[in-house]
From TrEMBL:
Keywords: NAD, Oxidoreductase, Porphyrin biosynthesis. It holds the Pfam family Sirohm_synth_M. Residues 151-204 form the Sirohaem synthase dimerisation domain. It comes from the Bacteria. This is precorrin-2 dehydrogenase. It catalyses: precorrin-2 + NAD(+) = sirohydrochlorin + NADH + 2 H(+). The keyword Electron transport does not apply. Its EC number is 1.3.1.76.
């Protein structure tokens, strides 16, 4: 199956996780990190999900699944251990144009969640198109070793500089040369040595020289 890779903005969107076990907990935490408006539907939940509910981080509907509970959802994750319920969720979502991911059932999902590593705003996702989550996790761990926190800081510096570069360097080719210089020279090494202030000073100096 050919899948179209996207990054989805779920901020303040109603996202529902049906199920209350460990898998559901992981999905809740990942959605919470993206500022989603989260509802969990399940008679029983893990202690961590319960704590999130008590602190008003999420909403817990302590009941069995019913279609009316997800009718206005933006996104639904079916994470129960009941195949029949998961399929019912999938069919309802497909009929009502709701994004749905059914755990361990690509054929009943219209999207899948990639294995993802993150360093600040740097996000790298790995997909095996549902064929091997284990391989995706292995590659993700290797990427985490290769692209450490210094890359997140480098991206932060590039982001802070971007508008200044646009304002001060009118030629598009020169802008590309400037960013290439920042990425390919000693800036990353300075960050690795925890000399972030010096790295920022050097980038600013290069910019002023244009």
């Amino acid at each position: 199956m050919e899948l179209y890779p996207i990054s989805l903005n779920v901020k303040n969107k109603k996202c529902v996780v049906v199920g209350g076990g460990n898998v559901a907990e992981r999905k809740v935490k990942s959605l919470l990190a993206c500022s989603a408006n989260i509802y969990v539907i399940s008679p029983q939940i893990t202690k961590n999900i319960e704590d999130l509910s008590l602190y008003k981080k999420i909403s817990w509907l302590k009941e069995e699944f019913a279609p009316n509970l997800i009718h206005d959802s933006f996104l639904v994750i079916a994470a129960t251990n009941n195949r029949i319920i998961n399929e019912e969720i999938s069919k309802y979502c497909e009929k009502n144009n709701i994004l749905v991911n059914v755990i361990d059932s690509m054929e009943n999902s219209n999207f899948i969640v990639n294995a993802t590593m993150k360093q600040n705003d740097l996000v790298i996702s790995v997909s095996t198109s549902g064929k091997s989550p284990a391989l995706a996790r292995k590659i993700k761990e290797e990427l985490k070793l290769k692209y450490g926190k210094e890359y997140g800081i480098l991206l932060e510096i590039l982001g802070e500089t971007r508008e200044l570069v646009k304002a001060n360097i009118s030629d598009e080719n020169l802008r590309k040369e400037f960013f290439t210089k920042v990425i390919d020279t000693e800036i990353l090494d300075l960050i690795k040595q925890e000399k972030v202030i010096e790295a920022k000073r050097r980038v600013k100096s290069w910019l002023l020289s244009h």
